[in-house]
Specification:
- InterPro entries: HAD-like_hydrolase, HAD-like_sf, HAD-SF_hydro_IA, HAD_sf.
- Keywords: Hydrolase, Magnesium.
- GO terms for molecular function: hydrolase activity.
- It comes from Kribbella kalugense.
- The protein is an alpha/beta fold.
- It has 2 domains: 123 residues, 3-Layer(aba) Sandwich (Rossmann fold); 85 residues, DNA polymerase, domain 1.
- It has a 5-stranded parallel beta sheet, with helices on both faces.
- Helix 1 packs across helix 4, helix 2 runs antiparallel to helix 3 and helix 3 crosses helix 4.
- The chain is globular and about 55 Å long.
Length: 214
């Protein structure tokens, strides 16, 4: 093995915790009452709308607006009529989300072990280049990552084979010599395996750690 590619959200970066905190903090500011059900609805909307973004049906900013149009009626909050007003409203959520960005405790130790073993390190993530790089910097991992490839930069999203192959190329490694690790079985594991990489599924719900794989 010459290189490891990590997924970012919910693999190195605890997106679920940050987004949950943001919703629970932001909704009361809008006059709503945060609840477990409401948080679950936020994530359901996020997944549906974000998939439309990955399919190039929406821009990154457009998927944020679409989220608000679906979510705000759930808390009886009026939906602003203009894109500019939607964008301004979303900054409330975004501020709380960004302010709570954090790495999983095992993330940096795992990257350090990989580096100590002479492995090149890549991150392959479906998302905005600017935001995903900002996450890596904020959670203190950017200095340990050699290559960051995003769906925005590549123009195509996981699990398309080209995403893994182009990341391997950027790392200067043959796919057969690269391991992909991620939390999504279909996107991070099966997709990578179909492209010729080794892959491991990180299942944090059963207590798995990244250190089990490096």
């Amino acid at each position: 093995m010459k290189a490891i590619i990590f997924d970012l959200d919910n693999t190195l970066f605890d997106h679920t915790a940050s987004a949950t905190y943001a919703v629970r903090t932001w909704v009361p500011e809008l006059g709503g009452i945060a609840s477990d059900e409401l948080v679950a609805q936020w994530f359901a909307i996020e997944e549906r709308v974000y998939n439309a973004y990955l399919a190039r049906e929406l821009t990154h900013q457009g998927q944020r607006r679409a989220r608000l149009r679906e979510f705000l009626p759930l808390i009886d909050h009026p939906v602003p009529p203009t894109d500019a007003e939607l964008d301004e409203l979303f900054t409330g959520y975004l501020g709380h989300y960004q302010g709570s960005w954090t790495a999983f405790p095992d993330a940096r130790p795992a990257l350090e072990v990989a580096h100590s073993n002479g492995l090149r390190i890549g991150v392959l993530t479906n998302g905005s280049t600017k935001q995903q790089n900002a996450k890596l910097a904020a959670i203190g991992l950017a200095d340990l990552v050699d290559v960051v490839c995003t769906s925005e930069f590549l123009g195509i999203s996981k699990p398309a084979p080209e995403t893994y192959l182009r990341t391997c190329e950027a790392l200067g490694a043959d796919p057969a010599d690269v391991l992909m690790i991620g939390d999504n079985l279909e996107v991070d594991v099966l997709g990578a395996q179909r492209a010729g990489l080794a892959a491991r599924h990180l299942n944090r719900t059963v207590g798995q750690s990244l250190l089990n794989f490096v």
